[in-house]
């Protein structure tokens, strides 16, 4: 099927260059890479294929802009972020169209992402003037001790394709609020959203060199290593796979950077017998199938207690059968394509492995070649076991595997068996169980009786192999600041003239 993008209200938001030091530029080599619509397979356009030299130029621009930007008052930086937020909201429809075009998610999801993404600029505009230090009671007579917060410096930000707007604003927002300047590597699959955001930053009056966007596809690893090995870059924030996170951490070791990594997930989603069935089904639909399962916090393993297992499987499958798959621009479409055919192949492999080992497909289970090469049916499989690939690998696609369990202790052990620990969910009406299980789950974030936990006000991040550091919330700005302690001596002298 062939689809075309609706025209933007503001065509100047569609860029085929990237933004460095306040200017729109190409790669020094003149090379470009192609970006395709995952729904239709049609070419969207090209973007600069940048390399080490281009990245170093961006780092120099950020370093040159840092002294002036960090001297601005927190309130001045706050107003810039607030203006950027407002420009995002004013151009929300166009930003959503760009997200759907290059990512494939339905327009309703894309509009939700724009609102969520803009929310980080709004939140950190409010946090910027509230980066407080402390006054500390010294143990040495005559000393006075206090702390101040300072920006860490130039920050390298590396973002994924699944949320082209929100992943970049969640990092840039706190960095700028703290007084840092940034070099952001936008994802090769979805660079046009980041470019549009850079255009809005320009309109918001953010000074040249404060925000720099580097684009690359084939040279992604080279760009990443340039950022991590640079002595000028003092902080790296990365969202992506655990494998790549470990590599970036090794590359950063020689320069002892401050790091925050939000890495892979394998979220358990637990439904106890005492849960409200309708609420649990709705939560599972929202968590598992948002963006066709291409989110790091989406439910990957659905554990259903045996007393409610059959009823849940039936009600859940009925909901999935009502989905409409297609281009994100089409009216009534609930789920779009996956990002590329490699993602489809992984989903198919997980389904085939589950079926081979006794899993029963209740819905979906097949590719959808009539729609295009990147489509896979939303799928439900029951009678899952912990020997199947899906139980220990992140599917990142529209497959819900239902695992039966008997006891609370059993399911918590299964949930914690993963080497990662980003998000976990469970449904229960028992207040004591809610506290007990929430504290027992080895994850950074827990959703109780809800399948949606993302909020700019809430700290986002994981434990174990899901990384470290927190984004969003009052903690998010701390990742981009250092605490400087100051001691004043000789302050215990008696009053003059006494």
UniProtKB/TrEMBL annotation:
UniProt keyword Hydrolase present: no
Broad enzyme group: oxidoreductase
Cellular component per GO, a single term: cytoplasm
Active site, renumbered: 262
Residues of the Aldehyde dehydrogenase domain: 24-486
One Pfam family per UniProt: Aldedh
PROSITE patterns in the record: ALDEHYDE_DEHYDR_CYS, ALDEHYDE_DEHYDR_GLU
Known catalytic reactions: succinate semialdehyde + NADP(+) + H2O = succinate + NADPH + 2 H(+); succinate semialdehyde + NAD(+) + H2O = succinate + NADH + 2 H(+)
Keywords, ordered alphabetically: Oxidoreductase
Signal peptide (UniProt feature, chain positions): none
InterPro entries attached to this UniProt entry: Ald_DH/histidinol_DH, Ald_DH_C, Ald_DH_CS_CYS, Ald_DH_CS_GLU, Ald_DH_N, Aldehyde_DH_dom, Aldehyde_DH_Superfamily, Succ_semiAld_DH
SUPFAM superfamilies: ALDH-like
Enzyme Commission code: 1.2.1.16
Example of a GO biological process term: gamma-aminobutyric acid catabolic process
Pathway: Amino-acid degradation; 4-aminobutanoate degradation
GO MF annotation, one: succinate-semialdehyde dehydrogenase (NAD+) activity
UniProt family annotation: Belongs to the aldehyde dehydrogenase family.
Protein name: Succinate-semialdehyde dehydrogenase
């Amino acid at each position: 099927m062939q689809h075309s993008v609706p025209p933007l209200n503001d065509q100047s938001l569609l860029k085929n260059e990237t933004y460095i030091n306040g200017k729109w530029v190409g790669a020094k080599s003149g090379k470009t890479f192609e970006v395709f619509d995952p729904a239709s397979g049609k070419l969207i356009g090209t973007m600069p294929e940048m390399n080490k030299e281009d990245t170093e130029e961006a780092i120099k621009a950020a370093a040159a802009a840092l002294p002036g930007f960090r001297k601005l008052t927190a309130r001045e930086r706050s107003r810039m972020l607030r203006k950027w937020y407002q420009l995002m909201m004013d151009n929300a429809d166009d930003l959503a169209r760009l997200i759907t075009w290059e990512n494939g998610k339905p327009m309703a999801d894309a509009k939700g992402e724009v609102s969520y993404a803009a929310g980080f600029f709004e939140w950190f505009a409010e946090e910027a003037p509230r980066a407080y230090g402390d006054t500390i009671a010294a143990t040495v007579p005559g000393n006075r001790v206090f702390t101040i917060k300072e920006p860490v410096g130039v920050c390298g930000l590396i973002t994924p394709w699944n949320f082209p707007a929100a992943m970049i604003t969640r990092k840039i927002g706190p960095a700028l609020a703290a007084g840092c300047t940034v070099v952001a590597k936008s994802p090769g699959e979805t660079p046009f959203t980041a470019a549009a955001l850079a255009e809005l930053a320009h309109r918001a009056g953010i000074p040249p060199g404060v925000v720099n966007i580097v684009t690359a596809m084939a040279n992604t690893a080279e760009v990443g290593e340039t950022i991590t090995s640079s002595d000028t870059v003092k902080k790296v924030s990365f969202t992506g796979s655990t494998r790549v996170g470990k590599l970036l951490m090794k590359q950063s070791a020689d320069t002892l950077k401050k790091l925050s990594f939000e890495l892979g997930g394998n979220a358990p989603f637990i439904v106890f017998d005492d849960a409200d069935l309708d609420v649990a089904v709705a939560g599972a639909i929202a968590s598992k199938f948002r963006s066709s399962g291409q989110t790091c916090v989406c439910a990957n393993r659905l554990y259903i207690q045996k007393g409610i297992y059959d009823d849940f499987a039936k009600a859940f499958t009925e909901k999935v059968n009502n989905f409409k798959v297609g281009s994100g621009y089409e009216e009534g479409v609930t789920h779009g394509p996956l990002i590329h055919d490699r993602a489809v192949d992984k989903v198919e492999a997980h389904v085939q492995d589950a079926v081979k080992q006794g899993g029963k497909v209740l819905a979906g289970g097949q590719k959808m070649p009539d729609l295009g090469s990147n489509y896979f049916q939303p799928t439900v499989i029951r009678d899952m076991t912990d020997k199947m690939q899906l139980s220990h690998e992140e599917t990142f696609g529209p497959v819900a595997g239902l695992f039966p369990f008997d006891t609370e202790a059993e399911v918590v052990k299964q949930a914690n068996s993963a080497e990662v620990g980003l998000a976990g969910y469970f449904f229960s009406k028992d207040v004591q169980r809610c506290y007990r299980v929430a504290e027992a789950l080895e994850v950074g974030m827990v959703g109780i009786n809800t399948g949606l936990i993302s909020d700019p006000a809430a700290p986002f991040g994981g434990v174990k192999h899901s990384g470290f550091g927190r984004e969003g919330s009052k903690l998010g700005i701390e990742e981009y600041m250092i605490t400087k302690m100051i001691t004043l001596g000789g302050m215990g002298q008696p009053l003059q003239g006494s």
